[in-house]
Design goal:
Elements (H helix, E strand, L loop, with lengths): L2 H7 L3 E8 L4 E6 L3 E3 L4 E4 L5 E4 L4 E6 L8
Antiparallel strand pairs: 1-2, 1-6, 3-4, 4-5
Length: 71
Amino acid sequence: MNPAIIKKQTTGPGPFIIRTSDGLEYRVPHGEFVGFTRDYVYVQDEQGGVDILDPLHVVAIRPVNKRRPRS
């Protein structure tokens, strides 16, 4: 995915899920937890760990549904 598209989709309040081509999902609590360089996307989790992603392997970005399912 184009890094500019990733940046646009992760700007603002979250949370978001970033899915990569290997099927892994990365939870992004807020747009401030994502950083960019020319070649990589950095995703920090709430515990301070950082995952380094190749933007070419990002296949989906979606907001996390905050609604609770009906009982």
